[in-house]
Amino acid sequence: MKIGIIGTGNMGRILTEALIDGKAISPSSISITNRTLKKAIDIKENYQEINIEENGKDVAEKSSLIFICVKPHDVHRVIKDISPFLTKEKCIVSITSPISVEQLENITSCSVARVIPSITNRALSGVSLLSFGANCDHEWKTILKEMFNQISTTVEINENITRVASDIVSCGPAFFSYLTQRFILAAVKETKIDQETATVLAENMLIGMGDLMKKGFYTLPTLQDKVCVKGGITGEGIKVLESELGDVFEHVFQATHAKFEEDINQVKEHYIIRT
């Protein structure tokens, strides 16, 4: 099977490298392109057998499974550009959340799917969110599930939870990275620890915490119970978090959903639902 990847920016590159390193696909089976070809060439430096094409049309012509890894407002243009090569037996996969599989099915006759990856997939971990068009061939569903199970835990989602699921899976690493950085900076400000030492301690704490949950020793609530001894130091810290966090996470989801609606409105004119 020949695979095409149109767009090798941040997520396109992560997806390419993860699928290769996870042995889900071989470098020689992949054709990639990007508006700025240097980004594609940079990937080839590490995976010599990858094929670089001049444009999306060349990728689509040579591939049966095509990943569209461009910004939401560019997806319609890319699909229209490659449409002569999107025969019924092929499949296109979008990685952008504001465009539904139903909308994509209204501009092409091939199988359609959406995969929302996470930066954690680069470590062959985390979750990939899958959605399939109503007319997506069963074989493509199986192929995509097997492919992404090599680099993540796959979860098939309904359209109505696309944004919140993406917030948790895809945006979550950035959110919690920011919180950890603030945690580190506060430690440096309030105590005599230096930032390098605090960073090493915090990073390894997160890795260890992830391993505890991955291996099934604790859930998030039981982990808190085990560490937070009644009347102890941890409990005093938890009290501060409880009183000062307030509705901060509710506000985070409100903000991401407001931006999501804005993005949907910006692209929806290109995807008129046929009746």
Structure report:
This protein has 275 residues and is α/β, with parallel strands linked by helices. It has 2 domains: 3-164, 3-Layer(aba) Sandwich (Rossmann fold); 167-255, ProC C-terminal domain-like fold, CATH 1.10.3730. Helices cover 53% and strands 12% of the residues. The protein has 11 helices and 8 strands. Helix 6 links the parallel strand 7 and strand 8. Helix 7 (162-190) packs antiparallel against helix 8 (195-214). The mean pLDDT is 95.
In short:
By secondary structure, this protein is α/β, with parallel strands linked by helices.
- In percent, how much strand structure appears in the residues? 5-15%
- Which CATH class of the largest domain? Alpha Beta
Low-confidence stretches: none
Radius of gyration: 21 Å
CATH H level, superfamily name of the largest domain? NAD(P)-binding Rossmann-like Domain
Task: Give me the number of helical elements.
Answer: 11
Strand count, sense and barrel status of the largest sheet are:
8 strands, mixed
Biggest β-sheet: strands ordered side by side in the sheet: 3-2-1-4-5-6-7-8
Basic shape:
elongated
CATH topology of the largest domain: Rossmann fold
The CA-CA distance between the termini, in Å, is 34 Å
Task: Spell out the blueprint of helices and strands.
Elements: E1 3-6, H1 10-21, E2 30-33, H2 37-46, E3 51-52, H3 56-62, E4 65-68, H4 72-82, E5 91-94, H5 101-105, E6 111-116, E7 127-132, H6 138-149, E8 153-156, H7 162-190, H8 195-214, H9 220-227, H10 233-245, H11 248-267
Parallel strand pairs: 1-2, 1-4, 2-3, 4-5, 5-6, 7-8
Antiparallel strand pairs: 6-7
